[in-house]
């Protein structure tokens, strides 16, 4: 199992230490297709699901063999039956991790249900994806429910469609899509793509991993090598520690008839993969950083993925040029001052009324998120400016930090080279102002 946190590169992979349980889904909806709205955060699809009658938010992940729960909603509980204790080894350099394995679980995807859904429950309390994404996440959901159905993902409308009968999809509509042959191995899809790396054409065998927010992960071997223009970075944090590697770009990636130039690529160092030793056949993963640029239709029965470029296709491949990673770290009370209008006063609100001369104001106290610096890349603009890990962010570009979502902050940090960023922080009770310019290294 692996959970990548840095740079919002979330990756999950379980070593095959036990046989995968079978789960059979039934269609209880009266509709011919089930539409599920999802949140899209850092390219990741976060689905609302019910597991054992408890509502959870799960990251959809075609790259994982198993579905995993690592947190529960606050003040809530969930029942698991037939639980077995197991040990799993994750990416990183430390020891095995204790987990629970449960088979007879109910999963409900808006009327697409099963009573025999296998789950891993990871007991590591240090996992907190919610802090890094800024939204609550309880686990990951693998793509085992894709089997026997056609699943459509619309990144622009933020909808997932599960089709009851693929034959009812309009052929005229499907004719506009390109087809990529896919191989399904242990519930996970693999594709062959062509790329040009360091002016050399290479054929790639890649795992299709929409649970990876990065666009491309490649294992360095033979012709697949990072060019000289790269920087070393913490690519993520697995259950067993940090994953370090190189960040660079490839000349192009060819996906059916669609070409993506100067795509970002990460090359994780092989020492962080002691279990897998980089499969002789698999060259890496293609993730959501590329796939979110397409409308996707997964058809496991016919061993194919249909793709059509959406409005995001031509966007440049940008990355966080500040070197600064910010995380959500709890909440605290803030007050908002507004003129008092007695006719709209609600006694149930948490507020104080203060007089200021002849004018009265309403002070409404609201819980809002606290943001702090989680990591800083060495020699980055933020590091050279003097910002430190643990600094509490108070304002960005002269606006109160509470005006931003974590997603908006991250988009700002990868917006455009040369953009000035003004940050006010609090360090040990002292307010300090910093400024730096976003700088492109690769």
Characterization of this structure:
36% of the residues are buried. Strands 1, 3, 4, 5, 6, 7, 8, 9, 10, 11 and 12 form an 11-stranded mixed sheet that branches. Residues 1-20 and 353-357 have low confidence and may be disordered. The protein is 6% helix and 46% strand. It has helices spanning 129-133, 171-174, 288-291, 381-385, 406-413, and strands spanning 26-27, 33-37, 39-41, 44-51, 54-61, 68-69, 84-88, 97-102, 107-109, 112-114, 119-122, 139-142, 150-154, 159-163, 178-181, 183-185, 188-197, 200-209, 216-218, 231-238, 241-249, 252-255, 258-261, 264-268, 284-287, 294-299, 304-309, 324-339, 351-356, 359-376, 392-396, 399-400, 420-427, 430-437. A hairpin with a 2-residue loop joins β29 (351-356) and β30 (359-376). The chain contains 5 helices and 34 strands. By secondary structure, the chain is mainly beta. The two termini are 30 Å apart.
Low-confidence regions: 1-20, 353-357
Alpha-beta content class: mainly beta
Q: Which geometry do the CA atoms define?
A: globular
Count all strands and give the number. 34
Estimate the helix proportion, in percent. Answer: under 10%
* Sheet with most strands: 11 strands, mixed
Distance between the termini: 30 Å
What is the number of helical segments per DSSP (H or I, 4+ residues)?
5
Beta-strand residue percentage: over 45%
The overall pLDDT average reads 83
Q: What's the alpha carbon Rg, rounded to whole Å?
A: 23 Å
Strands, helices and their partners?
Blueprint: E1 26-27, E2 33-37, E3 39-41, E4 44-51, E5 54-61, E6 68-69, E7 84-88, E8 97-102, E9 107-109, E10 112-114, E11 119-122, H1 129-133, E12 139-142, E13 150-154, E14 159-163, H2 171-174, E15 178-181, E16 183-185, E17 188-197, E18 200-209, E19 216-218, E20 231-238, E21 241-249, E22 252-255, E23 258-261, E24 264-268, E25 284-287, H3 288-291, E26 294-299, E27 304-309, E28 324-339, E29 351-356, E30 359-376, H4 381-385, E31 392-396, E32 399-400, H5 406-413, E33 420-427, E34 430-437
Parallel strand pairs: 5-12, 6-11, 18-25
Antiparallel strand pairs: 1-10, 2-14, 3-4, 4-5, 4-9, 6-12, 7-8, 8-11, 9-10, 13-14, 13-26, 15-27, 16-17, 17-18, 17-22, 19-25, 20-21, 21-24, 22-23, 26-27, 28-30, 29-30, 30-31, 31-32, 31-33, 33-34
């Amino acid at each position: 199992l692996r959970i990548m946190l840095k740079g919002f590169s979330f990756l999950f992979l379980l070593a095959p230490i036990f046989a995968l349980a079978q789960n059979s889904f039934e269609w209880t909806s009266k509709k011919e297709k089930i539409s599920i709205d999802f949140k899209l955060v850092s390219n990741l699809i976060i689905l609302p699901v019910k597991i054992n009658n408890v509502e959870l938010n799960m990251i959809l992940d075609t790259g994982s063999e198993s579905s995993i729960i690592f947190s529960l909603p606050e003040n809530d509980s969930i029942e698991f039956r037939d639980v077995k204790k197991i040990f799993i080894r994750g990416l990183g350099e430390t020891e095995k991790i204790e987990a629970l394995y449960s088979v007879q679980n109910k999963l409900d995807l808006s009327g697409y249900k099963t009573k025999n859904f296998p789950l891993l429950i990871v007991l590591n309390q240090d996992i907190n994806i919610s802090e890094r994404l800024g939204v609550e996440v309880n686990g990951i959901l693998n793509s085992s429910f894709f089997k026997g159905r056609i699943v459509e993902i619309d990144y622009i409308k933020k909808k997932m469609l599960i089709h009851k009968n693929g034959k009812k999809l309009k052929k005229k509509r499907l004719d506009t899509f390109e087809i990529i042959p896919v191989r399904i191995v242990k519930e996970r899809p693999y594709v062959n793509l062509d790329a040009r790396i360091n002016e050399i054409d290479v054929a790639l065998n890649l795992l299709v991993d929409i649970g990876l927010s990065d666009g491309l992960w490649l294992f360095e071997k033979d012709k697949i090598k990072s060019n000289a223009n790269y920087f070393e970075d913490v690519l993520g944090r697995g259950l067993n520690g940090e994953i370090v590697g190189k960040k660079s770009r490839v000349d192009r990636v060819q996906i059916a008839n669609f070409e993506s130039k100067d795509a970002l690529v990460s090359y994780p160092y092989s020492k962080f993969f002691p279990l897998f030793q980089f499969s002789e056949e698999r060259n890496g993963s293609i993730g959501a950083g590329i796939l979110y640029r397409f409308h996707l239709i997964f058809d496991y029965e016919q061993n194919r993925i249909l793709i059509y470029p959406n409005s995001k296709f031509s966007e440049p491949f940008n990355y966080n040029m500040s070197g600064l990673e910010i995380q959500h770290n709890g909440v605290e009370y803030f007050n908002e001052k507004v003129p008092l209008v007695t006719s709209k006063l609600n006694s149930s609100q948490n507020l104080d009324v203060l007089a200021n001369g002849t004018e009265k104001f309403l002070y409404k106290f609201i819980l809002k998120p606290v943001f702090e610096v989680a990591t800083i890349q060495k020699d980055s603009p933020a590091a050279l400016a003097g910002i430190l890990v643990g600094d509490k962010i108070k304002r960005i570009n002269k606006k109160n930090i509470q005006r931003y979502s974590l997603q908006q902050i991250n988009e700002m940090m990868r917006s455009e080279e040369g953009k000035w960023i003004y940050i006010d922080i609090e360090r040990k009770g002292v307010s300090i102002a910093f400024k730096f310019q976003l700088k492109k290294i690769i």
